[in-house]
Amino acid sequence: MSSDKVLPDFFSVFRYFDYGDGEYIMTLIEQNIIKIVSEIRSKKEWNIKIKNPEIKGKWKMELLANFDEKDVQYALDECEYLARKYAEGEKILEAVDGTFFADDYIPKSVLNQLIQAVEEFEKDTENSQDWHPGSDQQVLDLVHPSLYPVINEVSRAITKDLSPSETDIMGSYMNLGTGSVDNVVFSTQNNKRSRTVEQDFISKRFQWLPAEVGVDAEGNTKFLSYINNLHPKKYGKLYACIEQVLGHFVPMFNKVLTYSTEKYVSKQTPRIKPATYYVEEFDEFVARIKKEKNIEDKPQKDGEKAEEKDDDDDDEDEYWDIFDEQKLVTPPAEYSFSPQNIIEPVDIVDLNGTRLQVIVKMANIC
């Protein structure tokens, strides 16, 4: 399956920014509001319960034990506003900005099939267990892309052409062992003259191998290539279960990507703007410190100007050394939630009728 659908540009932390680009820096008050918002939205059916004044009042009393009242009220008002915007029966809810979750989202019949298929797979592989590093044998990796990744100058590919092409899962599997190492070109090799984010943050030797997934017009998913470290013929039942689970996640992927476009991220504004804080200027800081230490500015005589200037320069350097840590920063006295702070996305992402590359992981927590 190939697709001509054009998706918008997405924000990524793996690139360099000019001053002022990217996500804004949160004030301490906003960070506290985010913590409260997260606590509220972690409650099951919070979007329904927050409309009940009695429940909302109970939550407020619980939150006041750990947070400032203005922060709590701001978070409650924001959550109630968003809850009233959700369509009745909406299951995919925003946890905190740009992240989404859903309770009881995957049908139990699908979950039961998945559990049964995973149990069968785990029995087959019990003699070759891979415990996750640093987990003290608490996390058993069943399928993990790092177990057998693509290795530069070792792994082989049948072509350098990375454009989407019609394929099927067994067709991709039958090509295993063929190809040439020269066909595997890492992105960091494309431009050796300029320094890029890829060269700084992405491995030049190892890369995970994604599975190709087709999404039809109704949002159903189908693996078009094998899952790395999972035999497609032997574990076909498990493939089918993962496809069903993945299909349910496509609407959630749509939500996350809609709120991750460059256009949307660039329009976000702080809940509590830094400009609402009072920040002591350097001259004010010096005057305050001198007053606290009873230091007076002495009048200079003509013969003392050069020497006094050197002393003043030394004093100023000392003040600069402590300015950032000791300057007064006073938060705003009043602030509250306003619906104007909520920016609606412009580009709505729809992955139906497209093709994805998916990394599959499965682990058992013992």
UniProtKB/TrEMBL annotation:
Region listing for Disordered, in residue ranges: 296-316
InterPro entries membership: DUF4246 (IPR025340), DUF4246_C (IPR049192), DUF4246_N (IPR049207)
Composition skew (Basic and acidic residues), residue ranges: 296-308
One Pfam family from the record: DUF4246_N
Domain of life: Eukaryota
DUF4246 domain segment(s): 25-62, 70-365
Cross-referenced PANTHER family: FE2OG DIOXYGENASE DOMAIN-CONTAINING PROTEIN, IFI3P
Protein name: Uncharacterized protein
